[in-house]
Amino acid sequence: MSNKRIAVVIPCYRVRPHILGVIDKIGSEVQRIYVVDDCCPDGSGDFVKTNSLDERVVVIRHQENQGVGGAVMTGYQAAINQGMDIIVKVDGDGQMDPSLISSFIDPIILGEADYTKGNRFFDLEEIRAMPKVRLFGNAVLSLMTKLSSGYWDLFDPTNGYTAIHADVARHLPFKKISNRYFFETDMLFRLNTLRAVVVDVPMSAQYGDEVSNLKISKIIGEFLVKHARNFSKRIFYNYYLRDMSLASIELPLGVFLLLFGCGFGAYHWVYSWQEGVATPVGTIMLAALPVLMGFQLILAFLSYDITNVPRRPFHKLPRYFKKMVKI
User: Fold this and answer.
1) Coil vs helix vs strand at 95
2) What integer pLDDT is reported at residue 126 of this predicted model?
């Protein structure tokens, strides 16, 4: 193990039956454990302070519930203030195996990544143990996250087992990151604006008697709106504000041609149906060609975007460059 100072952040909300077991499994490679009591009605923070004998544990309490994102940001800030080098986030419900911490921090220590996150879908055999509804939901969310964040090589976007280099964390706009269930995916968008390198770490899915507070029916609309917002911002930041390329032309031109062709074709189809006359071949071609060309241009843009995933770790860049890229 290197001389890097490792910290673990554990956001706590209704995890009292599991939290001590999680702390006990955290290895000696970790120097600090920040238990963030997010105004937990079960008093998780007081419970840990009373029953945990681990000297590495620091309990932080929120007077008001701020959501998992707010709790993690509080832990990040505490770790940064105390000079930690790498910050690992582990949930307190026992679903995440603390013995995997070394797997999450190694790519960062070796300079291969700025941020690592778990991927429960790497082993196809273990996927069979995952609830089918959760499997389908993660597949849909993964596609949406790829579009909005720009990290096309990642999967399992809602996985909260993560590690980040402190130098990257201190450049994140803490007050702008979503505090609640959109936190993990919003983090990826913010990391892309820094051009940070993100790597998936294979891990097993563990399901016990814990109860999830996430209700898909309540957050699906919010997720759609926020993904659309992040996608628009990312495209503007990366393709018009910071840089210009052929892809900067392909996307708007492709969208324009596609919409023009669809609108032109729909108008003449309705007109022909109402008048009871056949649409001329020339008119059909005038509608079809823009649609085909627009579709090809959009595919060309997506192809470029997929190859434009960040490859150079942010924490190894010169300091003056980091100040330039911060938004």
Assistant:
1) coil
2) 67
